[in-house]
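Inputs:
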Amino acid sequence: MDYIQQRFSVPFEYRVYFTSDLFNLQNAVLQQFLQTDASHNIKKIFFVIDSGVAEYHPKLTSDIQHYFSVNKQVTLIENMLIVPGGEACKNTDTYVNDIVEAVDKYGIDRHSYIAAIGGGAVLDMVGYAAAISHRGIRHIRIPTTVLSQNDSGVGVKNSINYKGKKNFIGTFAPPVAVFNDEHFLFTLSEREWRAGIAEAVKVALIKDKPFYSWLCKNALALSRREMEPMQYQIKRCAQLHIDHIAGGDPFEKGSSRPLDFGHWSAHKVEQLSGFEIRHGEAVAMGIALDTVYSHLCGWLNEADTKSVLQLLIDLGFDITHPMMEISDDDSPLIKGLHEFQEHLGGMLTIMLLRAIGKGEEVHHLDIALLKKSSDWLKQYHQIAQQ
Amino acid sequence: MDYIQQRFSVPFEYRVYFTSDLFNLQNAVLQQFLQTDASHNIKKIFFVIDSGVAEYHPKLTSDIQHYFSVNKQVTLIENMLIVPGGEACKNTDTYVNDIVEAVDKYGIDRHSYIAAIGGGAVLDMVGYAAAISHRGIRHIRIPTTVLSQNDSGVGVKNSINYKGKKNFIGTFAPPVAVFNDEHFLFTLSEREWRAGIAEAVKVALIKDKPFYSWLCKNALALSRREMEPMQYQIKRCAQLHIDHIAGGDPFEKGSSRPLDFGHWSAHKVEQLSGFEIRHGEAVAMGIALDTVYSHLCGWLNEADTKSVLQLLIDLGFDITHPMMEISDDDSPLIKGLHEFQEHLGGMLTIMLLRAIGKGEEVHHLDIALLKKSSDWLKQYHQIAQQ
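Outputs:
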């Protein structure tokens, strides 16, 4: 056979900074990053901001303007784009098109920056627009929610939805830097503060027993909105995600997606609820379901199973929902399982729990056992509520 | 400063196969690739075909259907999408949307294939659609022109145009395999046969003096459409491109793009002509202009300069065009230079010739000298035509 073999590796690196009040002139973190990174002289920076963040931080845009009037490493594009937060910004290509148009209008080149300030959905959407403009404009992420600071914001994926299907369109494109600013956490709603902790529970369960024990000990403090344990939780969870990406299959060429523990049902329930149920809330319920399944298939003992459910309850999560119920093979959740398989690429790969801190993958879920797990969970939930 | 450092490399590999009559049942190349690659059992393959190819090869779709009715490693999606060839398929997002819709409709997952059969523009567009669907569906390229077999088809870029700006939207996404089938070359028009050779001249000039000498010796045979030298030219040029990508900066994070020798003006002239001038034809003129500039700036001697122009003429190329003329700072070509700089990312980087086979980059072009080069070339062209 006559062929030429091509083979190469593409290196990526970026830092996830932990800071407070990023655009305060006393804070040198961003300016030091730009000094090191901005090697050419006509760099620009364009900001896209989550409308929820803009609303709770009315001085944000003027702070940014003031910051770049003093720090002149890059030229601020004065017009900033405000986009709706949550899945609303991903359910249409309107905002992606707005960003591409801005890239054209303001002459944002491949060595300039597109910075996103917002929750995970906004970062996903802006990251996608940045990735496809000029084949990839440098993307800076400034996550403002617990979920995006400890999970999606520190990773390498971006996306928008298509006909209601989550993340159907997107790419793998690492950011050039992530700035986790605790300042944004203070204004989070009760629900948003809590929702992100589900990803910490997830990653602790599959990878890190000591972190799981820490979460159990600190669950009530976390749910009381204490900042110190929240900061520890975010940093530990981010570290576990970052290590996982670097150590595994960053662009997910295989079928294995261990970090999607609890996610197959979560994706579907989010969609079924019209995204009224938040991602983290759905993940908490997905974790509960797959934990019970792990128990009923004989892997996880009963005490550990109940400990997981109790941790979720202590954190203030619902562990199930009528939409999580599986009555038969045609239940919406079973349809979601097939969609998950398709998105994954043909072969189903689902993470379950061998033990606390030890995930293990399977390539088949038994529908009858899933139905039993859903019933078991519903019953436990009813008892726990009494 | 408090931060987590992320660092990883993503490996890529694929083969560029050289073959004849790919879908002939006697030809085992594709089937052997699929056998090795297709590790799961529900893989599908979806074909997108250049309308020009479909027209010249009316049996192609039935050959493909017959091929996959016998070779069952993957399931053929019987409906194939026929798209216009050339820039027409890149000037709109219609066809990208058609492909995304097909991905949804036919349940094409990340481990299935989207195969493109066509010229460079069709491969660019289909590659882009595949790259953004499910964050990247396996993409097979079957280039049908000289240009796509020796250059763009073997590389890692994809794109569509935006508001007439070439390749404004796109990503870097290596294919899983490329099949260069000489069978498609027989039906190429005179212009298409010739156009692709410009990229061979380009890469020989900047990297490979022996290949340049070979091209000079074989120019007339190539222009007489002899298949043997054409095959050698394609393979050598593809090899040089592949080596360059692997040895350099595959996803072009820096500003350096040595393979774009002669391309800054070519992109603009293509656009100015409404893509009536083909990419390869424009590149030939771009090479001529930058070769003369290399001469007038004191790098390339007169004999070598004239040898390059003679090679282009022997191959049947026009070496200039009224649209290539630079009368003043506001000439369209100068505007194209600024656009190229922007697309590149801020800092201008242009390849010139130190000698035959030795390119060298500069970060500035002198407008007055460019004007002089354009005049010099126009005059040479007039004399050559007498």
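Remarks. Residues 227-247 of chain B form the longest helix (21 residues). The CA atoms of residues 222 and 230 of chain B lie 6 Å apart.
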